[in-house]
Amino acid sequence: MKKYDIALIGLAVMGENLVLNMASKGVSIAVYNRTVSKVDQFISKNKEYHRIGGAHSVAELVNMLTKPRKIMLMVKAGKPVDDMINELLPCLEEGDIIIDGGNSFFEDTRRRAAYLQAKGIRFVGAGVSGGEEGALKGPSMMPGGDPDAYQELAPIFTRIAAQVAGQPCCSYVGPDGAGHYVKMVHNGIEYGDMQLISEAYYIMKNVLGLSGEELHTVFSQWNQGELDSYLIEITSDIFTCKDEMTGQPLVEMIMDRAAQKGTGKWTSQSALDLGVPTPTITEAVFARCMSAYKGERMAAAKVLVGPDKQYQGDKEQLIQAIHDALYASKICAYAQGFALLKAASIEYHWKLNFGEMALLWRGGCIIRARFLDRIQEAYNHDGELVNLMVSPFFSTVLSKAQDNWRLVAITCKELGIPTPAISASLDYYDSYRRTVLSANLIQAQRDYFGAHTYERTDRPGIFHTDWLK
Fold first, then answer.
1. Strand (E) positions, 132-255?
2. For the segment 13-27, what is each residue's pLDDT rounded down to a tens digit?
3. With contact defined as beta carbons under 8 Å apart, do 140 and 365 qualify?
4. Which H or E run includes 71?
5. Which active-site residues does the annotation give?
6. Is the pLDDT of residue 1 over 80?
7. Backbone angles phi, psi at 128, to 5 degrees
8. How far is CA 157 from CA 140, 143, 351, 355, in A?
9. Could you tell me if 258 and 250 are in contact, meaning their C-beta atoms sit under 8 angstroms apart?
10. CB 362 within 8 A of CB 171
């Protein structure tokens, strides 16, 4: 029987495209899907790929592989991953490798790593980003887990990953759940980035009345400069698509109710657990939650009033200000993501390489952007950097952008235009640069009603006051 290099279970869109990517790069791969008819359909549809073999059972799939066996799961996160692992276990031998390439919660990955290690099976939790196109042409890959297992997988993973300047967007991240944690934070930044871009669009549409053609031109121009990124690029493309029935930009016919799969929420929850402020990311999650209240918002619009003003300023000046506000806010989103990675690295003893994280995201993934090179430079210059905002390059950018950033925030507040992520980003910047915040009064209140004590600014120690005395 012919033996294959690796197996993949789960022939949804991402799984299918990863298989075709591997086969096109010279990797022989066996495939299996619980709906077995899908295996035969996939093989029949892709007859030109001679390195793909189909299995009709888990036992048959395992028997088709060279040892140590390498099996990648591309199934729905949660119970389906556990179920598939337990179905595989009776067929595997010590030293075999299971890879979870789905969007699993990192704590689940940590649990599975310990469970499988006790059974002699090596486990890799690999974040895979890039969507359908990335899976086919080269994704960003963030593998964590058993380091020896990764060394055996590296010849395959680095071959199929996105390539930037001759380097693969794939390298070992860290033990147990590190790979899925990095992917989770990637998705959290993605939430923030998408919300910020949508707010920039919303301002230009509702304050300046820009048409679809004009919005396409603006975003195309922005993609030639500092904002050059995948999300800006596809946003520019979106405004060129017309609705066949109305002739209007298709985006204007889409219901303003954003869905989410949970990874942004996980990022915010982890930030709360670790005590790391991530307001841009968290406000982006809340903005999606608010969008889901479409019926309530439509009813509220008949009752709640706001400013009845028109923008009287210079159009081109405001477009430039929106550009600067978007750029500065995007930096804050990335700064929050990397601050969270730093805290998690300490908490879980992962020893993450933050400059290398930026390299992983330069190609293949959704948040790939020009300034990731600058992030790598910042961490290469100072491996102990506490926050991206204080690095020389980014602190200069933020300083230059802040007047326009504030102009956008003020203008939108005066006109009643919601900008939750841009506003949260500016507040993050202003809070981080302040030596004194309002928390002294909070501590006084806590001590007043609960004797929670406080520290003083003039001498060390822990103090309590009888405020009613």
1. 140-145, 163-164, 167-168
2. 999 999 999 999 999
3. yes
4. strand 70-73
5. 183, 190
6. no
7. -130, 120
8. 10, 9, 22, 20
9. no
10. no
